[in-house]
Structures are given as structure tokens and as C-alpha cells.
């Protein structure tokens, strides 16, 4: 197992990353199983592909893509992936970033789904503000996506990606903290096992697909203390 910080992904590699992300949120029948992704994408697999592609393209163009592979050499089949934005940057923050695929996604989703996006942003920003966490922090390496191919889970690939992210943030001259939020109790517990401290939580209405989605905020992980 090896984690690589990769630059300038080819179109083929971008599509492979999209496949890993989409597959990670679906079952063997191609049905979306993660409630938050059902709500984000209107339970539409094509929208989930647009969502994943827009995120990968943004990270590839403006920030950092970490991939886990079975062997030591890159390029190789992607097993796990982490998408992170360095201090002062954020996912889809500029017109140029949104043109990389987010605009296509937002045109495709329904007004009800757009309203859900707005509710997530409102609640997420409120949780951050309550605990002094900036929406675009100037000292925080922010993790927006961390996912392992579901056929390889439980083998340490996710932990290896997070260790690589933390190590990158901690390098001399950086000493960035690492920030993230998550929308499942399972992920909350996993991040807590890695040393992240939960500081706040809330619930987002998930109608018509479910009752609610939890959202958890964490204190930035101070890499100089690891």
C-alpha cells in the first residue's frame, strides 16, 4: 500500500477517480446508498457523477489530490482518494473553479435539491461560526472528500490517506492544521479514532428521502501536536 500526492491527473485518471467515488456511495446494483449523497444529488446517479467529477477537477486544478494504491508505483489503479484544499482556498470558491463542473451540476439538479445544498451550507457555516472556525481558514488544510473503494475497506487505506494528509500539513514551513466535517456517525467515530475532536453537531432535514442527516464539526487537528 502506498499513498501518492499526485498532480495533473489525465482525463482517464480523473474518470477513474470519479468511478471510485461514485462506486463508494452505491451498492452492487448502482443505487446510491449514502443518504447525504441521495439528498445532494436528488437520488440521481448521473448527478452523483457530475458532483464527483466537479470535485476531482477542482482539486486537480487548484489544490491537492492524494491517492492510495496497492503497489508503490504511480500511475496505478486508485484504491482510495483524499481531496484537500490548502489554507486560503476552498472547494468551488471562484467562478473559475465552478466552471470546472459545478455549474453543470447545479444546472442539472432540481430546485428542491438546490435548497438542500443551501441548508447544508447554512447549518455548516453556523456550526463553524459558533466555535470560531472560519469558512475559509488561512491556516487549515481542509479535507472535502476522503473515500476508499468499498471492495477494499477495512484494510487501512483510509487511515493511510489521512496520515499522508496530516504529514503533508505538518511539513516544515507549513504546520497547517487539518479541518473537516462529516455527515455520518460512523465517519464521526472513525475520525475521532484518528485524534479529531468533535466540537459541535446538528441535523439537516432529509425529506423526501429520510428524516434527517447528522452533521458533525471537528476542532482543527493541530499537526504540530501529533
From TrEMBL:
Named from the GO MF annotations, one term is: acyltransferase activity, transferring groups other than amino-acyl groups
Write down a Pfam family by its short name.
Answer: Acetyltransf_7
Gene3D superfamilies in the cross-refs? 3.40.630.30
- The N-acetyltransferase domain extends over 54-222
Q: Which domain of life is it from?
A: Eukaryota
PROSITE patterns attached here?
GNAT
What protein is this chain from? N-acetyltransferase domain-containing protein
Organism name: Collybiopsis confluens
Amino acid at each position: 500500500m502506498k499513498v501518492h500526492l499526485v498532480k495533473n491527473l489525465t482525463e482517464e485518471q480523473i474518470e477513474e477517480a470519479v468511478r471510485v467515488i461514485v462506486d463508494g456511495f452505491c451498492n452492487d446494483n448502482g443505487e446510491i446508498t449514502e443518504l447525504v449523497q441521495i439528498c445532494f444529488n436528488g437520488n440521481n446517479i448521473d448527478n452523483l457523477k457530475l458532483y464527483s467529477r466537479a470535485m476531482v477537477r477542482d482539486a486537480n486544478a487548484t489544490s491537492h489530490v492524494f491517492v492510495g494504491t496497492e503497489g508503490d508505483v504511480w500511475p496505478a489503479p486508485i484504491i482510495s482518494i483524499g481531496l484537500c484544499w490548502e489554507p486560503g482556498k476552498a472547494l468551488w470558491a471562484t467562478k473559475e473553479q465552478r466552471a470546472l463542473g459545478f455549474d453543470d451540476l447545479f444546472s442539472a439538479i432540481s430546485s428542491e435539491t438546490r435548497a438542500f445544498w443551501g441548508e447544508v451550507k447554512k447549518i455548516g457555516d453556523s456550526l463553524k461560526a459558533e466555535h470560531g472556525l472560519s469558512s475559509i481558514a488561512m491556516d487549515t488544510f481542509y479535507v472535502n472528500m476522503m473515500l476508499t473503494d468499498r471492495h477494499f475497506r477495512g484494510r487501512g487505506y483510509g487511515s493511510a490517506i489521512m496520515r499522508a494528509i496530516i504529514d503533508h500539513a505538518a511539513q516544515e514551513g507549513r504546520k497547517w492544521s487539518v479541518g473537516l466535517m462529516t455527515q455520518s456517525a460512523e465517519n464521526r467515530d472513525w475520525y475521532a479514532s484518528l485524534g479529531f475532536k468533535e466540537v459541535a453537531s446538528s441535523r439537516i432535514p432529509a425529506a423526501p428521502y429520510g428524516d434527517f442527516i447528522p452533521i458533525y464539526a471537528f476542532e482543527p487537528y493541530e499537526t504540530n501536536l501529533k
